[in-house]
Amino acid sequence: xxxxxxxxxxxxxxxxxxxxxxxxxxxxxxxxxxxxxxxxxxxxxxxxxxxxxxxxxxxxxxxxxxxxxxxxxxxxxxxxxxxxxxxxxxxxxxxxxxxxxxxxxxxxxxxxxxxxxxxxxxxxxxxxxxxxxxxxxxxxxxxxxxxxxxxxxxxxxxxxxxxxxxxxxxxxxxxxxxxxxxxxxxxxxxxxxxxxxxxxxxxxxxxxxxxxxxxxxxxxxxxxxxxxxxxxxxxxxxxxxxxxxxxxxxxxxxxx
Amino acid sequence: xxxxxxxxxxxxxxxxxxxxxxxxxxxxxxxxxxxxxxxxxxxxxxxxxxxxxxxxxxxxxxxxxxxxxxxxxxxxxxxxxxxxxxxxxxxxxxxxxxxxxxxxxxxxxxxxxxxxxxxxxxxxxxxxxxxxxxxxxxxxxxxxxxxxxxxxxxxxxxxxxxxxxxxxxxxxxxxxxxxxxxxxxxxxxxxxxxxx
Lengths: 256, 196
Description:
The structure holds two protein chains of two kinds.
Chain A: H1 6-20, H2 32-41, H3 46-74, H4 77-90, H5 92-101, H6 105-120, H7 129-132, H8 142-148, E1 157-159, E2 163-165, H9 167-180, H10 183-186, H11 190-210, H12 212-221, H13 225-245
Antiparallel strand pairs in A: 1-2
Helix pairs in contact in A: 3-11, 4-11, 5-6, 8-9
Chain B: H1 2-20, H2 23-44, H3 48-62, H4 65-73, H5 76-79, H6 82-102, E1 111-120, E2 123-131, E3 138-145, E4 152-157, E5 160-161, H7 162-175, H8 181-193
Antiparallel strand pairs in B: 1-2, 2-3, 3-4, 4-5
Helix pairs in contact in B: 2-3, 3-6, 4-6, 4-7, 6-8
């Protein structure tokens, strides 16, 4: 078995184990409001999801948060910005492919412009000159593409390591990572493998450092951080998908 | 003479103009004013206590805290006794203010560009772009009541609604604590009294 498939298999094994680990008990039938809320939360696997939330939270406390705190404390802001910009720049092809798959000519055009501007004026992605020139970055991933194509979200899943997700985004993540990632086209040698692994690590630290205060705030202010994270991430995701589907005026984007 | 009489008649009409303006304009004005006042407080208030007091005045003036509190308790509002409702609302306000004042440092140097105001169902959505030094711009929507005097009832940051998120937090907490409102009230008391 090629080593690159191992994380995917591990993920599938963990997802299926959450499926077997138990389901949430729906509220009694005589309480329509409680049932409506149960449906709205879209979390039939809540007990298993809460378990993995606890696991991730523990991992975060002993590993990710300290590393991100040190990273933010030791590495000066301009350098962290460069790291962030380069990571975004490397991800541009994945964004572009998804823009195209979503049939969004405007966004695909913006992504190409960003790539050209940042590759040249931005010195190979070191600076995000495109944002300064009012071509802001947007998210596009295969989970979003599936949503634009009309695929349903599926039940809420809190995945080990990866965090808040759902079957649609889980599949999307696998396709982006193992199918669309340009580093995967370059070759499958040890060097590429190490490079990808390093990038994954740096991306995780970069993302965690960016949300250091926001995460702490949620954990400090929420009475039930699990439910708050579930609500926040689902709303955020729905908004990004809404933006991918509709233009500025709120009209549904036309397919090409 | 006729000209002067006409002029005198026109003055009250002109003064009355803002009251006749579209309610979306009133909502937008509320957000513009609130944004300006918030940044004034963040950039000028000297002590933390002064800042907290100033935020309190601003929030009481601009937001309908009671309506927000009621929304956040959701279906449990109706099962709560009037006394529970009263205590809960008071604590909700204290905790909200505390959370906002606690983030005052983040509001320094913030520039808000208020965009258009649009009617959506019973409310008015005022969109804005908030620029924080060293951060990517954030899309913030301010939800303002359309009926009566304009009052702020929600803030939606990048698609995440403050009151929706808060409601799901409270309802999950209540769900795991036997739906007992008194336990929620105790938890809010602890939050209101916590240092920082």
